Amino acid sequence: MKHKTIPCLLALLTLVGLALPNRAFAQLPVKPLASQQILLRSDNPQLAKNKKLVYDMWREFLEGGHLEVAEKYFTETYMQHNPNAATGRKALVAFFSKFTKPQPISDTIKAPVVAILAEGNLVMISFAQEKSDPVDKTKKYTTTWFDMFRIENGKIAEHWDSAEKMKPN
User: Fold this and answer.
1) Could you tell me the Gene Ontology terms of the biological process aspect for this record (predicted)?
2) What is the pLDDT of residues 48-81, one digit of tens each?
3) Where are the chain's structural domains?
4) Count of H helices and E strands in the chain?
5) 93-103 confidence digits (pLDDT tens)
């Protein structure tokens, strides 16, 4: 009896193994964890303040295109780790002035915020992004973009993200 069971189990495991890769590695869509207002909360008042600083900078400076508020949000010696942008507040403004125009400032970040996390003097914000499937251009998939900021004396002093170097136009 035992000898007949082993081939059946092997056959069953093979079938399961063939079926699992598609399901085990199926990509789940990236979605926000909570409302933006809930994501800004923290039991620690300083962490909540740091989150709000990054949140407001994102709405006013990055999405709103109001480059005149750079001094409000960034230290003069702001350090940039994105390989496509130079370091310093002046360089940051020069970089964004190439493709940003002022527009009305929204009460919330327009991009789909997944999470806003704060620990010590660091704030990380992540976003859902929809991309074209490189194998089948008729399909889309979602992925996550991360930006992290270091806060110093109430301003953003340093930035990291997952950007890769781009070819100049």
Assistant:
1) polyketide metabolic process
2) 999 999 999 999 999 999 999 999 999 999 999 9
3) 25-161
4) 5, 5
5) 999 999 999 99
Q: Listing from the earlier edge strand, what are the strands of the sheet with 113-119?
A: 74-80, 155-161, 140-152, 122-132, 113-119
What SS3 class is residue 140?
A: strand
Burial of 168 (0-12, 13-18, 19+ CB in 10 A): exposed
For residue range 16-44, list pLDDT tens digits in order: 444 444 444 457 888 888 899 999 999 99
Percentages helix, strand, coil for the chain (3-state, rounded to 5) are: 35, 25, 35
Indicate the CATH number for domain 25-161.
3.10.450.50
Confirm if 146 and 161 have CB atoms less than 8 A apart: yes
For 117, the 3-state DSSP assignment is strand
- Token pair of 102 as six digits: 């002022």
